[in-house]
Amino acid sequence: MRFDEGYSGKVFIMSHPTHEDAQAIIYGMPMDWTVSFRPGSRFGPNRIREASLGLEEYSPYMDKHLEDVKYFDAGDIPLPFGNPQRSLDMIYDYAKKILDLGKFPLGLGGEHLVSWPILQAVHEKYPDFALIHIDAHADLREEYEGEPLSHSTPVRKTCELIGPENVYSFGIRSGMREEFAYAQDSGMYMAKFEVAEPLKEVLPKLKGRNVYVTIDIDVLDPAFAPGTGTAEAGGITSKELLESIQLIAQSDVHVIGADLVEVAPIYDPTEKTPIAASKFIREILLGWVK
Amino acid sequence: MRFDEGYSGKVFIMSHPTHEDAQAIIYGMPMDWTVSFRPGSRFGPNRIREASLGLEEYSPYMDKHLEDVKYFDAGDIPLPFGNPQRSLDMIYDYAKKILDLGKFPLGLGGEHLVSWPILQAVHEKYPDFALIHIDAHADLREEYEGEPLSHSTPVRKTCELIGPENVYSFGIRSGMREEFAYAQDSGMYMAKFEVAEPLKEVLPKLKGRNVYVTIDIDVLDPAFAPGTGTAEAGGITSKELLESIQLIAQSDVHVIGADLVEVAPIYDPTEKTPIAASKFIREILLGWVK
Amino acid sequence: MRFDEGYSGKVFIMSHPTHEDAQAIIYGMPMDWTVSFRPGSRFGPNRIREASLGLEEYSPYMDKHLEDVKYFDAGDIPLPFGNPQRSLDMIYDYAKKILDLGKFPLGLGGEHLVSWPILQAVHEKYPDFALIHIDAHADLREEYEGEPLSHSTPVRKTCELIGPENVYSFGIRSGMREEFAYAQDSGMYMAKFEVAEPLKEVLPKLKGRNVYVTIDIDVLDPAFAPGTGTAEAGGITSKELLESIQLIAQSDVHVIGADLVEVAPIYDPTEKTPIAASKFIREILLGWVK
Amino acid sequence: MRFDEGYSGKVFIMSHPTHEDAQAIIYGMPMDWTVSFRPGSRFGPNRIREASLGLEEYSPYMDKHLEDVKYFDAGDIPLPFGNPQRSLDMIYDYAKKILDLGKFPLGLGGEHLVSWPILQAVHEKYPDFALIHIDAHADLREEYEGEPLSHSTPVRKTCELIGPENVYSFGIRSGMREEFAYAQDSGMYMAKFEVAEPLKEVLPKLKGRNVYVTIDIDVLDPAFAPGTGTAEAGGITSKELLESIQLIAQSDVHVIGADLVEVAPIYDPTEKTPIAASKFIREILLGWVK
Amino acid sequence: MRFDEGYSGKVFIMSHPTHEDAQAIIYGMPMDWTVSFRPGSRFGPNRIREASLGLEEYSPYMDKHLEDVKYFDAGDIPLPFGNPQRSLDMIYDYAKKILDLGKFPLGLGGEHLVSWPILQAVHEKYPDFALIHIDAHADLREEYEGEPLSHSTPVRKTCELIGPENVYSFGIRSGMREEFAYAQDSGMYMAKFEVAEPLKEVLPKLKGRNVYVTIDIDVLDPAFAPGTGTAEAGGITSKELLESIQLIAQSDVHVIGADLVEVAPIYDPTEKTPIAASKFIREILLGWVK
Amino acid sequence: MRFDEGYSGKVFIMSHPTHEDAQAIIYGMPMDWTVSFRPGSRFGPNRIREASLGLEEYSPYMDKHLEDVKYFDAGDIPLPFGNPQRSLDMIYDYAKKILDLGKFPLGLGGEHLVSWPILQAVHEKYPDFALIHIDAHADLREEYEGEPLSHSTPVRKTCELIGPENVYSFGIRSGMREEFAYAQDSGMYMAKFEVAEPLKEVLPKLKGRNVYVTIDIDVLDPAFAPGTGTAEAGGITSKELLESIQLIAQSDVHVIGADLVEVAPIYDPTEKTPIAASKFIREILLGWVK
């Protein structure tokens, strides 16, 4: 696998040169081929890496420095264009390998469907894990226009895999009637519109548990993150997402992996979306990788 | 008239094929020729329709689905380029016809002057109606550089038509000294800078009354709606406007018509302005058309 | 000097034709040559002037009109391209002259380093002044990649000049570990992330003092001000900055000069950054020049 | 099939309301999922239709009017996102049906791979047809990173299907060494860099033959068509492509179908690419459909 | 009139401070209200002035320097927004006054309709003048959607005013069938697609005559001038237009006035359109004002 | 020096991993601090490298493949921001070292002033070399607003260094009267407006000589290269520049080094400028490095 051989492309600032003693592995999943509306998230990972060059290495939020965490940016998985099933298989293998090595997988999307094979791999290692899902969209569809492999389905699949009672969604402001009905009836947790306030209530209940966190950048309002495939008005601020990352860092949950998906740089000429995303990745590295 | 003949151009999602049994008529007013600064709102209506394709048909805010409301998008009124008076006459006739049919007029601007003939038609049917005006600008000028027909004058004209005590402005953060003086002295209501909080105070007083609502997209901060002719810093968030629409929906006022104006897509390469506007229109359909 | 001769280029709206009876002098410092990341703030002053044409002359925040204040926009200082030391010398001389004439210097940047010679000139006239510094970045570095003259150093230099106990920073959300350590250990004041709330606490303590205020536009979130060199996610809103300007205006401090820096228009195709900046300048004129 | 039922979306100007008496069928193939570099050509067909609204219906090049030709724009084939094989099957069926009805298929891409199933269908009806291929890229690869279904392979596949001696490429300025070697050795015709001049030589040799023409918009220099996935400097002008279309129209070949592919509007903020493409489609309708 | 009082806004480089001894008067006509498709040319004049700051004052084409010509840039005529008739009247009065003073009127549009009142004024002073019209569009319509005052009609009106045999159009590549038929039947001259070559043939025939030249920037291909309202593929290069200006300068015609219209900067984020336009204006000043 | 240690940043495609056996060294000079108008060329080198990823490795112009040439991309020289003199010293040392190693220096700018120290270093090794200068601007000023170190002066300085009779400029279309007078009087060669045709005349005269070539991307028309600091209408096409590179490659001159400068990506949202520039670099590698 690529991260065994070293990597010479773009990397997140202060990435270690090899993966051996890294606590976390950053990896990109440049896939956007099941996206129905606006493609382009395949370029997200590299633009996040580029924007990281403009970051300070120290965080006044966490009062920590990137040299306090060891991580290795392995570059992008070389996914085959236009082949969703083979792409998902490769992501699964990749995530599994990282987990087998006892390291924290920190994935960069790509469309949200990439989280699904990661969650399958996580489930094998941590059968009792809970999912924190931060997103504008419920992603609870059973299928999308006949395709069960779609960026609208991963959370539903996860409910079926680990039980809806282990799934916690935050910031949801868009979905089909059926998705909201499912959320209400199935026993999963869903906080509409808000993220930080409901997290304050939920995190104590998750105390001591293994938790995987998936963040879709479109939970932010398009004012803060226009560079995404399905922008949805009425979202939260960058400040609230930074606070939310901090709340999780300071809580008693055990974060075992995370991903940040759906950054599609082409729709944002101001570059504010990858600039914000790279800051969130820094905070995740400093706050969640322990 | 056009909406009698069916229409084959762009329409808002889930528009009914004919107007006969529709409760509401959506219509565009592609006029921007009295605008002094940055033209382009003539393209607003069609871009809002296009952006509606990216919307979910269900609203978690209202817990309603667009199939619960019957509406017909009649397309744009074919206004004569560069001829303000004839344009206003045509809008007046159009709005009057909708009202005569007992339907809810939901207009898409175009510059704010388009609201003036609508309000005249509304006044004929509902002489006792009150106006809720949500905007960054007071629009209380008597004339603009010698022209009484200007996008800066419609609210002043309405004060003269229905009495200032029946005019309620919200979110105002820009205007001439004379306009703010008029607001204070005339007996009209004006809430500066904020929308949702003052609405909570005003709505109970309007209980049972017929109310027309006009929204200028520039009440939003340019962070949320850069695609408008006269962007003004210091505005409200998309979230606050969504909340305000919901407050009106849940109140005891009787909304008899509405418009959303001044979306000028060319100034917003990220398309976040029409994306937000289409969501507001969905919420208005679901919450105000009864 | 240029402002003695009149000036025929672009000016801020309602600038007086000559400087003689002006209370304040607006002047641009089109310098960006020590900037490491994204240059372009040299075009900030003129774009702020252009955007001022879209402003109302009356402010509902201050309930004042620009005709209530006398100011002269002297245009840009003709700084020599690529020569930082000579540029700083010219700015020093310019600021000194304004202060000698007993007028309020209102500077438009340009990179943040331009504030340093102004502060030196201010110090000579008001040895006991305090600095209010509103910014995303601490700017407390001793040097930047070996260069002591850098846009990352002016606040540190000022601490050394007037004593850290006279320096008050607000809104800081980015910097090196050493900068935050210095802030904590040196005795200066630093409010992280927020501006308006901490100002409410600090202003009473500064009662009666001479205060110079320097504002870096990047204190705003990139949603509100993408047009800047080093955009940093997680910032404040335009509304909060307007409120902060008002808080200072209503306080008992004596503002003796101010600047607004780092507007780099090229990175903002929507022009919302200069639009907001021109409004802040109007508010400063109305609220701080007495 | 869709074109039997009428269609109410966007259409090319002056499209007939039904397909029955149409000589030509315009159809879109919104597919870009095997594209390795910059996706977005899925939006090409609709933006070409939109841009057609700005066209005159009369052509001074052909001295003909669009009312002189009967054509029906059937809209886009509803291709399944991210599923290349099923997409190609659907395009094959669609093209076959048009050909069975004796009509001229005029396809709008989408990535260049969409031409492959069309050419298979054309081959069944006209086993002796020749291909005119106008493009910056040779598209003669056997596979692309292991995938035989790729936008880099359709011309090679066609060589194998109909014999390289029946394939004529024009304007080629990019490809692998192996592709140019194949072009030289296989017996196919390839004109490098130029289109109009070599056409003047080749067309007389094709006298009386059935010819299908596929045009990749990237044969134009990026100055004329920046809105495409793989822009390549050194291309021809819009004028030369207009002249080339005219040369074919005035020749003695029998054009039996055509397509125009790879318009990716997102990369062209000025919209000049769809504006040019819509003009080429008008000229093809007027000049080639007989 | 404004140019009697001096003017303090933006001016073309090296404009003289007063008009008294100027040979030519530059004046802007910021009107775009009869434009059907994409407004924005009202901003053309000022952006051309701004772009002139980047020009050299010397022309290697003409081997002349701007200090060799005396001209005064009078700024924009303050046209009333949305009032075409009054606007045209004001332009007529303005042009008449310049001509009465014996100066060369050099107008900056604005939409092409602005040329009509100028040509009426020119006709009064020079009843025998000929028109050179360089444009992508024939502009020979009798009316546009019922409005005789439209940007599509000025050349037709001029044919009626001065006789078609005195009208020479160049570069035309778009129009209705009727317009081309009129061009052929009426006795006017029309060169399709090309400008420089046909000028070489026509200019000797115009030897010694008074000639007014109107240039629509859209004669250029959108590659060279995307910033215009109705971009039309297949146009000429900037080089050919520069050569054409030079051909006229070196000919034996007597140029008595000129205008350059339809620069709409908003559609060109690269600014290449006003950059090119300002160069054309410099060449016109150097080559035609004698 | 950096290229001795290997380099892990962005590199031009197919760069060798070490410099030892490389025939040519690619190096970036990210300097734009003496630029008077529009900065941003400091980002040119890396965007050219990025764009190279979209290039084919084989050139049908040269019929050669990048694996036929050995070159090492050493990354950017770490120039000190805002310090022109030290920057030039570092470039001088760097170029000297490459020349001392007997390798071909292929520099990427950066503003045109960066060529000056390279030419000084070249002169030391090849005192008899001739300069081919391809540019829109004469760059023959003695100083620019008092600064002798300016991007407008390098060709003049070179004339003084090696004698004007050894300087050959092509494509020049902008400059001061004095610069054109100097060109005419000094004995240097200058071809105005054109590049390829005059090269065909000049190259035979340079037979057998050592020649350094400096190309300013703005020799292209802004249609082909809008991403540059001082765009000048009326330029050549990408095709003509490709042809010119080929003419030099096929001639009997001995190219000893080259640079390509003034790519400023920020002004070109379509990326066509770095796309074209990367192709020119490929052609230079294939055609000039022997």
From TrEMBL, chains A, B, C, D, E, F:
It catalyses: agmatine + H2O = urea + putrescine. It is an enzyme of class 3 (hydrolase). Pathway: Amine and polyamine biosynthesis; putrescine biosynthesis via agmatine pathway; putrescine from agmatine: step 1/1. It holds the Pfam family Arginase. GO terms for biological process: putrescine biosynthetic process from arginine, via agmatine; spermidine biosynthetic process. The keyword Manganese applies. GO terms for molecular function: agmatinase activity; metal ion binding. Keywords: Hydrolase, Manganese, Metal-binding, Polyamine biosynthesis, Putrescine biosynthesis, Spermidine biosynthesis. Catalyzes the formation of putrescine from agmatine. This is Agmatinase. It comes from Salirhabdus euzebyi. The lineage of its organism: Bacteria, Bacillati, Bacillota, Bacilli, Bacillales.
